[in-house]
């Protein structure tokens, strides 16, 4: 009986797993009408040959497209699954990021982050972590900031930030919220005060965007 592509793929993968001279963890297998494609990485040329021989032993294999690459232990680990694993490991160690609420997908070196967090800085930190990994070509950050900000809370943060610095008056700063967007208005005496208000707004939970329309009255 002719094997289906799925059956043939599973048989080849099991043969690779059974062969003691092969580390099958980084080898991928695809099957199409009896043609088996081997891809991924091995640690030596003899291991590459052993993988090909193991695949040929499987009944139903008509031809092999051999795309396995030899990569030595000292070479950088830049396969997609290795990049994803490295990102997850670093997120788990990063106290700024709730790693249990973030998922990672890597496709040809491009990272996509998904999930939801309560603070904008957590989303930014996850993006920075992913971007620092060797082999990453780019990052698409789809992490959502879930908690909606409250205008009162943001106003209080701005007032507190101004109080920590001498001669600052937050009374003339206005705050409005729309979803995750904060709109700042009013007047301040210096550009530095404008920056303080904007940073205080970004520090509030749920903020995804800050529109700073504060006027500096020089």
Could you give a quick summary of the protein structure above?
The protein has 6 helices and 11 strands. With 218 residues, the chain is α/β, with parallel strands linked by helices.
Keywords:
6 helices, Histidine-containing Protein, Chain: A, alpha/beta, elongated, 218 residues, four-stranded mixed β-sheet, single chain
Your description of this structure?
- The chain folds into 3 domains: 66 residues, Histidine-containing Protein, Chain: A; 66 residues, Histidine-containing Protein, Chain: A (2-Layer Sandwich); 66 residues, Histidine-containing Protein, Chain: A.
- By secondary structure, it is of the alpha/beta class.
- It starts with a helix and ends with a strand.
- 29% of the residues are buried.
- Helix 6 links the parallel strand 9 and strand 10.
CATH architecture of the largest domain: 2-Layer Sandwich
Regions with pLDDT < 50 over 5+ consecutive residues?
none
What is the CATH C level class of the largest domain, in words?
Answer: Alpha Beta
Using the CA coordinates, give the radius of gyration.
Answer: 27 Å
Shape: elongated
Mean pLDDT: 85
- What class would the helix/strand composition place it in? alpha/beta
Q: Topology of this protein?
A:
Layout: H1 5-18, E1 27-32, E2 35-42, H2 45-56, E3 63-70, H3 80-93, E4 102-107, E5 110-117, H4 120-131, E6 138-141, E7 144-145, H5 151-163, E8 173-178, E9 181-188, H6 191-202, E10 209-212, E11 215-216
Parallel strand pairs: 2-3, 5-6, 5-7, 9-10, 9-11
Antiparallel strand pairs: 1-2, 4-5, 8-9
Helix pairs in contact: 5-6
């Amino acid at each position: 009986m002719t094997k289906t592509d799925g059956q043939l793929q599973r048989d080849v993968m099991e043969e690779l797993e059974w062969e003691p001279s092969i580390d099958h963890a980084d080898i991928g297998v695809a099957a199409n009408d009896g043609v088996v494609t081997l891809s991924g990485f091995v640690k030596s040329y003899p291991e590459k040959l052993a993988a090909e021989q193991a695949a040929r032993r499987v009944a139903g294999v008509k031809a092999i497209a051999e795309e396995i690459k030899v990569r030595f232990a000292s070479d950088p680990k830049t396969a997609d699954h290795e990049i994803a694993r490295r990102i997850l490991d670093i997120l788990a160690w990063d106290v700024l990021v709730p790693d249990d609420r973030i998922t990672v997908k890597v496709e040809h070196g491009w990272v996509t982050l998904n999930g939801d967090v309560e603070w904008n800085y957590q989303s930014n930190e996850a993006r920075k972590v992913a971007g620092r990994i060797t082999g990453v070509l780019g990052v698409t950050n789809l992490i959502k900031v879930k908690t909606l900000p409250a205008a009162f809370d943001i106003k209080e943060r701005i007032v507190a930030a101004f109080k920590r610095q001498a001669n600052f008056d937050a009374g003339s700063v206005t705050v409005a919220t729309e979803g995750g967007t904060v709109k700042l208005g009013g007047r301040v005496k210096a550009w530095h005060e404008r920056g303080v208000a904007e940073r205080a707004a970004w520090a509030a939970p749920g903020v995804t965007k800050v529109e700073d329309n504060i006027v500096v009255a020089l």
